[in-house]
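Deliverable D4.2, example record:
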Amino acid sequence: MTWFAALLLLASPPPAEVTGFEIAPVRDYRVGDLTIDLEITAVDGDGKAVADFCGPADLVGVTDQKGQPLTQIATFADGKAKLTKVLPGEKITVRAQSGERTVVTTWQPDLRQLSGVVSILPPLLAVVLAIVIRQALLALFAGIWSGALFIHGYDPFTALLRCFDTYLPKTLIDSGHAAIILFTMALGGMVGIIAKSGGTKALVDAISARASSRRSGMVTAWASGLVVFFDDYANCLLVGNTVRPFTDKMRISREKLSYIVDSTAAPIATVALVSTWIGYQIGLLEGVFGQGKGYELFLDILPYSFYSFFTIVFVFAVAFTTRDFGPMARAERRALDGGQVVAPDAKPLMDREITEMEPEHPDRARPDTAVVPVFSVILIVVVGLYFSGRSALGEGASEAGLRTIIANADSYAVLLWASFGGSIIAAIMALWRRTIRLDQAMDAWISGVKSMVVAVLILVLAWALGDMCKDHLMTGSWILSQVQPSIHFLPLITFVVAALIALTTGSSFSTMAIVIPIAAPMAIALTGEGTGVDPATGEAVTYATLAAVLSGAVYGDHCSPISDTTIMSSMASACDHIDHVRTQVPYATLCAGVAAVIGFIPAGYGISPLLTVPLGIAILVGVLLFFGRRMTPADE
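Output generated by the structure prediction step:
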């Protein structure tokens, strides 16, 4: 055996000798003056990677994003090392020892240079086209293609091919995106069964007997949004689908319903003490401030969440006073006088196959065939979040509080349990009430799923554009790099920057992930010890800056036609998506303007939100009463 091993050793080739290094950027272009990623590979004389080389190596000509020089690569894995977020000089040199030999490689970067402005053009093109031509699918695809055009050297054919074979399929690889699509379609199937079984009509008739006014219909929609506080996706789809038949009967425009749904979903999820958003926010805060401090910080910044608070109150004021202005007033007048809850040329994001599905046996229909499935979805989400969080924590769950448990739950999995569970319960209720047969229940479920196809396509395109802006064009990072804030205006500038990033990427979560790791250290550096800032003022500025990230992300999301929650609000309300965005923007911008002027500017000078929040609410109500017109039928 010993001789055999020795023969094998003699027969094996000697280890490859490193003769140089291959230095290559992850991408062949650079956006503005932003950092890039480099891959450094140890190679032999034939240019093949030497997998057993493990470093170290000296490095010259590279700095980190703070301008500090990087002088060494500590280790190589399989002969490769990756430098992330670095700034290359005019010449990069790598030097290492390979046996008795010193290996030196020099590389001069020769990258295509893209102007930083290019990074915001694709999302802006999508937004402008969506508003001008009123074709969301075409506008979103144009945005993706224009981004691919910049990435692939202005070759239109290659850019088109990469859209089809790379950027669009990549969004479906993301398990979270796939879960949202399944959740959306399954919930649409549940609504299809409820409609076919007569549950929707029976529920509307039952509500109409107690609430027969437009005011009560809108307040009911607003209150429903507050009840489903634990997740914005569940909020949008549940509230819109459940309330829509009743609001249609009350001649409330679909634009108004989608505004109420959209403007309660994310705002309440960001300020609720327990929600899927809070878990994400806590994780980002702990990434900057350390483990165990996330929830405490969340509670500290909560009073400074001006946009969320103002939006929730303003939605209620609009519903209770029945007053409107701008495009929303015109939509409400159309619905009131002509009974047209959608515009004649509108393209609602839900097929009429489900919204106008006639019950098979209306005489047997009962409200519980709608109420039980809807509340079962809510119950499954609440219970599912708890047990999913406990499972993730393992042995530590016994000592964890409810907030920690919810923060660690797999919200995507729970939403899938809820949507498919709701579909099953809807079918059981319909069969038990004998309103439809099993084959009819399956057909109704499939019809409900099909009604969501257009909305799902828009979601996929919006995700693809958002991923391109975030991962390839680095839109958020470039916008952030253009800001040079002063201490007193740091919260305001952070709010504006976060809103711009959310508007152009269509993602609140991505915006928070981009801005918090930069804005938080910036606030600490400008207000900490040795800066001469009063501690109370410094604390207010820090908390307001962190809250400004969250508020700006939600506001930009509300104004963005490529936002997933905005799309889902249009979808659940069966509203034309562009009409929803067009009518929501003035209201959202009013709340944002008051949040900026009355909230974040005073917070930069240390003024307590206990003073500014009531003042901001009073201003919003005053504007609504002064400029808004009360929407009543023309004959009143």
